[in-house]
Amino acid sequence: MFSVKGYGAIITGGASGIGLAFAEALAEGGARVAILDLDSNSLNLQVNRLSAKGFDVRGRELDVTNRKEIDQAFAHIAAEFGKVDVVFANAGIDPGIGFSNPDGTRSQEGAIENYEDERWDRNIDVNLNGVFATIRAAARHMKGSGGGSIVVTTSVAAYLNEGMVGAAYMAAKAGAAHLARNAALELAHFNIRVNAIAPGFIVTNIGGGWLKQPQIQKSIGDMIPIGRIGSADDLKGLALFLASQASSYITGAQIPIDGGGSL
Ligand code: NAD
Predict the structure, then answer these.
(1) Which of 107, 110, 127, 226 is the most buried (most CB within 10 A)?
(2) ipTM score
(3) What are phi and psi of 207, to 5 degrees?
(4) What is the pLDDT of residues 24-35, one digit of tens each?
(5) Which pTM value belongs to this model?
């Protein structure tokens, strides 16, 4: 029921953190995996590492904000795999600044009246426009191939206010979440399911790896009902569930995976 054996999977932002965990989960389950990522060093490293374990994994360097590159990558990978069954629109960035500092004081730089154009634009470009480009490319392919599953990595910041992550991230994630719901409604008729995973605090390289600091992990862990910060591996089960037929009657859902942090 949870099998992804023989599936063709595309994962954006799969060279690090949560996307890498998705890639591992799918590859371990017997899927053929294509990782699309901006960071060529991490991409090569991870593709070589997973290939050396005998998994069917390949990589392609691209920026999800480049729609032409996304379309070309999908065409190329679809031709190689024959069929793309699962697409994870996961690539994302954290602007690293909001209206409040980690110590609770107000941030001047992250205040709305001081928010820089470039920071706003890049965030919306990657975290919202990149998801649009990925969903569109997936829909074009899946409509002609009998269906599939699209999974968008949003965030609990799509529906919670988090002063530290700031205006652009929250707006982009809320936009991506609603875009996923719209796509779910529009594409259900074509046997294409679209769901979102909304992580809480997960230790990855995002935001310069600030969540890797032990004292930050402890203070966040103390606020989380389950009692600890999350790891990328915590997301593997949900990724397999949403990719596989185990979730065949679920579409348009956004599932929090945050140790109860948003309760
Ligand atoms: P990460 O930095 O470890 O990994 C992100 C990956 O995306 C990197 O490999 C990076 O090179 C790639 N990427 C960034 N911009 C790209 C672009 N324009 N084109 C292609 N690839 C690009 O971070 P992560 O925490 O694994 O983040 C993955 C997703 O999870 C993001 O969408 C993020 O917003 C979301 N998320 C993370 C957390 C968390 O606490 N880590 C919480 C909620 C949501």
Answers:
(1) 127
(2) 0.99
(3) 60, 35
(4) 999 999 999 999
(5) 0.98
CA distance 213 to 228: 13
Q: Is 201 in the pocket of ligand 1 (CB under 6 A)?
A: yes
pLDDT digits (tens, 9 = 90+) for 144-155: 999 999 999 999
Query: Is the per-residue pLDDT at 96 higher than 80?
Result: no
Q: Where are the chain's structural domains?
A: 8-251
Could you tell me the two tokens for 42?
Answer: 């991490």
- Which option is the CATH number for 8-251: 1.10.530.10, 3.90.1150.10, 3.40.50.720, 3.30.479.10? 3.40.50.720
Helix axes 130-145, 67-81, angle to 10 degrees: 30
153 close to ligand 1 (CB < 6 Angstrom): yes
Q: How far does the centroid of ligand 1 lie from the alpha carbon of residue 189, in Å?
A: 30
204 lines ligand 1 (CB under 6 A): yes
Ligand 1: which atom is nearest the Cα of residue 39?
A: 11
By residue count, the chain amounts to 263
Question: Rounded to whole angstroms, how far apart are CA atoms 158 and 142?
Answer: 26
From the CA of 205, give the closest atom in ligand 1. 3
Residue 236: active-site member: no
Contacts of 181 (CB under 8 A, 6+ apart): 194, 196, 252, 254
